[in-house]
């Protein structure tokens, strides 16, 4: 069942289209979360104190929050794969445009998630759920749409990680098995991998 959702994104023509797709999905669900929270307004009886009553629990909550921030910025594992696709020479190394791209990417991630966390905390205080969408409760159709965007974002993210595998399979079929590099080969190779 999970493979079915991967079929269409695996056929996108370029990684640029795929990154754009993932970016739109991320921007969509995060915007829904913070705009809906802002529209709901500060809840009656909201408290901004620490949730835990012991120092140990506060330390664990702090470390858990750091882990969640690290997870939100988890795109670093695919950076080397992306950098490998950028032409590089001694006069014009790929690390310069790559560094600019990484900085821009992290700024975009921060612009997506910081408003969610700050506005969510302002509206719900210390009773905010880890997923702000759960705290919103209504309108159900909007929360469902945002969750659908999350699912589509995760599906697209898998595709970014799978691109090197797709390239390796296609290179093997063309170089070792002597297939012609056609659109049909691309289609069959990707569908075979995703649908297994």
Automatic annotation (TrEMBL):
Key word Transport present: yes
Keywords: Amino-acid transport, Membrane, Transmembrane, Transmembrane helix, Transport
Protein name: Amino acid transporter transmembrane domain-containing protein
UniProt-annotated location(s): Membrane
Key word Cytoplasm present: no
Domain Amino acid transporter transmembrane, chain residue ranges per copy: 23-194
Gene Ontology annotations for the cellular component aspect, listed alphabetically: membrane
Spans traversing the lipid bilayer: 101-124, 140-161
Pfam families for this protein: Aa_trans
Species: Rhododendron simsii (Sims's rhododendron)
Domain of life of the source: Eukaryota
One Gene Ontology biological process: amino acid transport
Primary site of residence: membrane
Xref: PANTHER family: OS05G0424000 PROTEIN-RELATED
């Amino acid at each position: 069942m999970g493979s079915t959702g991967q079929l269409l994104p695996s056929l996108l023509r370029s990684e640029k289209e795929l990154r754009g797709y993932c970016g739109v999905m991320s921007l969509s669900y995060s915007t829904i979360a913070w705009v809906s929270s802002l529209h709901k307004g500060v809840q009656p009886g909201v408290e901004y104190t620490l949730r835990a009553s012991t120092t140990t629990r506060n330390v664990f909550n702090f470390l858990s929050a750091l882990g969640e921030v690290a997870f939100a910025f988890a795109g670093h594992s695919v950076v080397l794969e992306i950098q490998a696709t950028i032409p590089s020479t001694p006069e014009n190394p790929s690390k310069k445009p790559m560094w600019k791209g990484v900085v821009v990417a992290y700024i975009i991630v921060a612009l997506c998630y910081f408003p969610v966390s700050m506005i969510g905390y302002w509206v719900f205080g210390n009773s905010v759920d880890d997923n702000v969408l759960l705290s919103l409760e209504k309108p159900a159709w909007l929360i469902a749409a945002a969750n659908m965007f999350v699912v589509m974002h995760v599906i697209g993210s898998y595709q970014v990680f799978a691109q090197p595998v797709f390239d390796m399979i296609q290179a093997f079929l063309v170089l070792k098995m002597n297939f012609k590099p056609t659109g049909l080969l691309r289609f069959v190779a990707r569908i075979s991998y995703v649908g297994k």
